[in-house]
Amino acid sequence: MPLSLNIGKRYTFNTLAPAKLGATIENAKLTSITDYNSVLKLINMRSKYANIISSLPEGTPVDPNLSIYYVFEKVSGDIEIFSQYWIDEGTVEEVVSVNLVINVTDVSVDKITLIRDILINAGITTFNIEQV
Fold it and tell me: Model-level pTM?
């Protein structure tokens, strides 16, 4: 059964094959939901699926054609495709975000890099620092 995910939304979830797919995918934007034949135009899913199937729970369909595929854009900008059978459905959480405006006054110029680094270390990568 397909997962209840919506294109354009961001999700965090655990995978069912952490050694091969990574344990947790964080803040990934769902860009497309597709079938096996369409995903073959993007990557060699038969090979990838075959490489991962042994790491999945017993009873997982071995035929990659039976899956729905989810195309995500990760925070890094990389695109990654997941079979519905690779995602731990019980861990899927929609990431709700807002735009935030912060006005910092009377800051010395040498603090700009420090502030930028603090934001990046906190996992915030979509920001703009404007010196006025």
Answer: 0.77
List the structure tokens of 28.
């990934």
Exposed, middle or buried: residue 70 (CB in 10 Å: 0-12, 13-18, 19+)?
buried
Query: pLDDT, tens digit, for every residue of 67-91?
Result: 999 999 998 889 999 999 999 999 9
Report which residue type is found at 132. Answer: V
Instruction: Please state, in angstroms and as integers, the Cα–Cα distance from residue 30 to each residue in 6, 83, 120, 128, following that order.
Output: 7, 13, 22, 24
Residue 34 belongs to some domain of the structure? yes
Q: Which helix (H) or strand (E) holds 94?
A: strand 93-95
In a domain, 80, yes or no: yes
| Under 8 Å between Cβ of 88 and 74 | no
Residue 27 inside a domain? The answer is yes
